[in-house]
UniProtKB/TrEMBL annotation:
One Gene Ontology cellular component: nucleus
Name of one Pfam family that matches: GCIP_N
Region of interest (Disordered), ranges: 190-231
Protein name: Cyclin-D1-binding protein 1-like N-terminal domain-containing protein
Composition-biased stretches (Acidic residues): 193-216
InterPro entries reported for this sequence: GCIP-like, GCIP-like_N
Domain Cyclin-D1-binding protein 1-like N-terminal: 48-194
């Protein structure tokens, strides 16, 4: 019993430590911006890969110790100490090394998010250790222990994959994801333009309903015309949310123009991915100016789908002026992204340079 209490106390201490790590990795927390780096610091992605691999090995041992008899608290403490004070400490060091002013905001945010996921799952795993230690009967917890271990492994695998993917691979995946988001918006607007084909029947039903309302109006104190006006306004709003009104040819023209420009912006995403992101080698990433350029690019590429969502909402609200303003912003941001990468990573003109010049002229 004393041995189990020692394990409980030790696990609670480690839980407090992991909770502090997790708090320091919160989205609004400051990480790594003012840390004094050691001379010749290691690559943070390599450090994360190695520490995550080791943490998987330690948690494998822990899972076996927790679910098999005899339950040995001292053995659990030994392995748990290595897991928390070696692996997790190394991960936090990697976060400090992956400073946004050196490795870029884009990569730093990915690192923080994935380390945060490991810390979150480690807390759950420690809770499982506490449950087993308190009951000293692992048979009741074998499924929960294995499930908790599996989720923690997945979080570790994401860190290991991060090193394999690299900053260029991450940028490529993100650009493809954002491009797909724009494509989804184009398809939604197309469906909105086409409508569901049921509006004529709805109009007939509305007329029948209004005729009934007129018949009943003599027995009420409200004005029949007032009721009809309210109903018409409601129908207009409801229909606009589902399809492009037939009496708005100005919006139809704007919709066609917007779809055309958004498709061209999609082409830009594909071209940037092929000609610039896939050529972002470690050697290119070693130059700070290129890291800063990539950060600016990813920020612009991320803003565009958000603006496209706003554009769709402006159409649904039948606001032509907002449509024009937001579409202009989309085109401007896309042109800024294209201009940012007009030359290659070494500042020289290439095939993409000529393509960007033509693309910009067409999209504007």
């Amino acid at each position: 019993m004393a041995a189990s209490q020692t394990l409980i106390d030790f696990t609670n201490t480690q839980r407090t430590l992991v909770a502090q790590y997790l708090a320091s990795l919160a989205p609004n927390a400051s990480t790594g911006s003012s840390t004094q780096l050691p001379p010749n610091p290691p690559n943070p992605l390599h450090l994360l890969r190695d520490s995550a691999t080791l943490l998987k090995a330690h948690t494998t041992k822990l899972a076996l110790l927790l679910i098999n008899k005899p339950f040995t608290p001292s053995a659990v403490i030994t392995v748990l100490r290595d897991a928390t004070q070696t692996c997790l400490t190394a991960m936090m060091s990697a976060v400090e090394l992956c400073r946004p002013d050196i490795w870029g905001v884009f990569l730093h945010h990915h690192v923080v998010a994935k380390v945060r996921a490991v810390m979150r799952e480690m807390l759950s795993f420690l809770d499982e250790v506490l449950d087993v230690a308190r009951e000293e009967d692992s048979s009741n917890h074998s499924k929960d222990t294995l499930a908790s271990t599996g989720v923690l492994w997945d979080a570790c695998d994401a860190l290991i994959q991060l090193e394999k993917t690299g900053i260029a691979g991450l940028a490529v995946l993100k650009a493809q994801e954002l491009r797909d988001t724009i494509n989804d918006a184009i398809q939604e607007l197309k469906e909105w333009e086409e409508g569901d084909g049921d509006h004529d029947e709805d109009d007939d039903d509305s007329e029948d309903d209004n005729d009934n309302d007129d018949d009943d109006a003599h027995s009420t104190t409200s004005s029949p015309q007032h009721s009809r006006d309210d109903q018409d306004e409601f129908d207009d709003i409801f229909s606009a949310a589902n399809s492009l009104p037939k009496n708005r040819p100005d919006l139809k023209q704007r919709l066609q123009t917007s779809a055309d420009k958004l498709k061209k912006i999609q082409f830009l995403y594909a071209a940037i991915t092929k000609r610039r992101l896939k050529t972002f080698t470690p050697e290119i990433a070693s130059k700070k100016i290129n890291i800063l350029t990539l950060d600016k690019l990813m920020h612009l590429l991320k803003e565009l789908p958000e603006s496209v969502d706003d554009l769709a909402n402006a159409f649904y609200e039948l606001d032509a002026q907002q449509v024009d303003a937001i579409l202009a912003t989309c085109v401007e941001n896309a042109c800024s992204a294209a201009d940012l990468l007009k030359t290659d990573w070494n500042g020289k003109d290439d095939e993409f340079t000529a393509w960007v010049t033509k693309w910009t002229a067409v999209v504007k």
